[in-house]
Design goal:
Shape: globular
CATH topology of the largest domain: Jelly Rolls
Number of domains: 3
Number of strands: 28
CATH class of the largest domain: Mainly Beta
Radius of gyration: 29 Å
Length: about 675
């Protein structure tokens, strides 16, 4: 009887507390040796010799994954409730260019450890354009994003967000930490310093907390807290790990140590016990010990001197014969280096796909300039591009940003432009601008850009097709006159002909529908983009606004519906407070719709546009619907489908990190 009673109690205990067959705790003080065998790597990720996990390097547009190789149980099999979990890890982000990070990394819980089909850039290696927002993703992530998020007021790109099945964060905040006195301090994720993160999910209260600190001490206060039940998101068994990506801007993303635990607090990490970041003092101390062989210092010095001499010769200002035929003025590299104070970060105005833009002051004349620094090793490409500079450099119009000159030093191409102190027009129209332009200022800017575009199309010796007209490429001088800039995508052709290129370039929302079919830019496709600009200035909205209501998503369609309903003045930017010329507003709206017509032949020429704006010719009484000539809306659908989804609800971090001179920086000829 006693034996049966013992067996009964043993069976009862095992039924209440089943044997643990699932892994529930991970702890890595670096990833050397046996630890490395438990990590599944994919993409650019690798484990370095000292045990540090590197998710990406400074290569553009790559992704990297590192997941624990076995799945972990995340749900109670009896009631389907997601279990509590806790993790802490030490990381560092080292950007290719100081203070300009891209794109970021994320702690991730996923169905698969390889994340097939995921893309780099703004997708952080987690998703792609077709699966963003799908509930079937079953993806949870905490992102550490280093590309700007204007919505958060995060002008440096430095925030933490909670992502569920999407890259539009459910909640996000600028990176910061709380010290021992509970005082809050900003924290730069892309500073290259080691930072520790704590992520804790409490299942009973459905609460997720994120904390950061530059030390080993866990803060008392929470940086980011979010109420969420992860039960519908997490499946019974899932993989845990990290994902990172780069775009046009690249960073190395490192994980030094990682601790994870189910139903409890993850074991603490001590930063001084983890592998050192490459480039740190500790890292170099270890290297010195390893190479302390007699005479090695002398050899290293000789090698270093050789490299210095080779580099000095390579970077010298050598002028080749073909460059003597190229205008405008050719500056010396030393002159521009002095003008920009050595291309210091403090002088950086912005950046784009082909380089950086610096503010400078020419030493001999005290003239303020904007210097675009473009790196390209193609000698032939530079020669062809220099010929194009010679043509565009001769453009002279009060409403165009003037190219003063250029400089070439091996693969480094520098372009010198007139400095526009008030920056680009988009900073005065979108989000929450510090200054609201009056209607008089807006109408003057519209007229100025129209005049400059007419000069390009008809009044210069050749036809210049700009191919990237938008608010970000309209710069404002000291008197807030609008000047069209950034001719990096411009093409020249003889009057009456079109460029031979068939490559679609430009910015979504401004691309004429026919470009998706033919790829051939024309003056009419420029007019289409100018129509989008007219509506932008009038309405204070972007051509495509992903966060708007469905009926307001595409600006031209929304404006047309308001026009058709007779609610014309409802489209005018509300920030004007009703202070605007109603007749001029109607002219701008009507003209914007005419220029935005899907059919190229239905659009006016820039000469007609200028005459309409000046009031010399009355506008037609009737305005055709933008799609009236082809009866289709497929093109707008194409733009909507192609519009990039950002990683924290912000703008596209790869194509449009704009700062006046910076967007779509000058490219080589197609």
């Amino acid at each position: 009887m006693a034996e049966r009673l013992i067996i009964f109690w043993v069976l009862l205990v095992f039924s209440i507390y089943p044997a643990k067959s699932q892994l529930d705790e991970l702890f890595f003080k670096g990833f050397k040796g046996g630890a490395a065998s438990n990590i599944s790597l994919n993409g650019a990720s690798e484990i370095e010799d000292n045990g540090i996990l590197r998710l990406t390097n400074v290569t553009q547009r790559v992704l990297g994954h590192a997941f624990y190789s076995r799945p972990i149980q995340f749900k109670n099999s009896t009631d389907g409730k997601a279990l509590s979990f806790s993790t802490t890890f030490a990381f560092a982000t080292c950007p290719q260019y100081a203070s300009l990070g891209g794109h970021g990394f994320a702690f991730t819980i996923s169905r698969e450890k390889g994340l097939p089909g995921a893309l780099p850039n703004q997708y952080l290696g987690l998703l792609n354009a077709s699966d963003v927002g799908n509930s079937s993703n079953h993806m949870f992530a905490v992102e550490f994003d280093t590309v700007l998020d204007l919505e958060l007021g995060d002008i440096n790109g430095n925030h933490v967000g909670i992502d569920i099945n999407s890259l539009v964060s459910k909640k996000s905040v600028p990176a910061a930490y709380f010290d021992d006195n509970n005082s809050k301090h900003d924290l730069d994720l892309k500073s290259g310093q080691v930072i520790q993160a704590w992520i804790e999910y409490d299942s009973p209260s459905n609460r997720l907390d994120v904390k950061l600190s530059p030390s080993s001490v866990k803060p008392i206060s929470t940086l980011l807290s979010f109420e969420v039940d992860l039960s519908p998101i997490l499946q019974e068994s899932m993989y845990v790990g990290f994902s990172a990506s780069t775009g046009l801007l690249a960073s190395s993303h490192y994980i030094m140590g990682w601790s994870f635990k189910m139903n409890g607090e993850a074991k603490s990490l001590h930063l001084d016990e983890l592998p050192s970041l490459p480039g740190s003092k500790e890292y170099h101390r270890v290297l010195k010990i390893g190479v302390s062989v007699s005479g090695s210092v002398v050899i290293i010095l000789l090698i270093g001197l050789s490299f210095y001499m080779v580099r000095k010769i390579k970077n010298s200002d050598v002028v080749e014969p073909w460059e003597l035929d190229v205008g405008p003025h050719r500056y010396s590299h030393e002159e521009l280096k002095k003008a920009t104070r050595g291309f210091r970060d403090e002088e950086l105005l912005g950046f784009g796909g082909f380089g950086q833009v610096y503010k400078g002051t020419l030493p001999n004349s005290n003239t303020q300039v904007a210097v675009k620094r473009i790196s390209n090793e193609s000698k032939q490409g530079l020669r062809e591009f220099a010929s194009e500079i010679g043509s565009i450099g001769r453009l002279r119009h009060r409403n165009l940003v003037q190219l003063f000159g250029w400089c070439r030093q091996r693969g480094d191409l520098l372009l010198v432009y007139d400095f526009m102190p008030n920056g680009s027009l988009d900073k005065y129209l979108f989000d929450e601008p510090k200054t609201i332009l009056s209607w008089e200022q807006r109408f003057k800017i519209i007229n100025g850009v129209a005049s400059g575009l007419l000069y390009l199309h008809e009044e210069w010796e050749q036809t210049v097709i700009h191919r990237d007209i938008k608010a970000a490429n309209v710069l404002l001088d000291s008197e807030l006159n609008g000047r069209l800039g950034d001719f990096g995508l411009a093409k020249l052709c003889n009057h009456g002909s079109n460029p031979s290129t068939t490559r679609v370039v430009g910015t979504l929302g401004y691309l004429a529908p026919e470009l998706t079919r033919t790829g051939k830019s024309t003056t009419s496709s420029d007019v289409f983009a100018f129509g989008a600009l007219l509506l932008e200035v009038l309405c204070g909205r972007r051509p495509i606004e992903p966060k708007a209501l469905p009926e307001e998503l595409i600006l031209v369609e929304w404006a047309w519906e308001k026009w058709r309903a007779g609610s014309v003045l409802e489209v005018v930017d509300a920030r004007l407070g009703g202070e605007f010329d109603k007749v001029e507003a109607v002219v701008v709206l009507k003209l914007g719709l005419m220029c935005s017509n899907n059919a190229p032949k239905a659009r006016p020429t820039m000469r007609q546009v200028v005459r309409y704006l000046e009031g010399k010719v009355p506008l037609p009484e009737a305005v055709e619907a933008p799609d009236a000539y082809d009866g289709k809306k497929g093109d707008c659908g194409y733009y909507l489908h192609s519009y990039p989804t950002s990683s924290a609800g912000g703008d596209d971090r790869d194509a449009d990190i704009e700062s006046g001179y910076s967007n779509s920086l000058l490219s080589l000829p197609r």
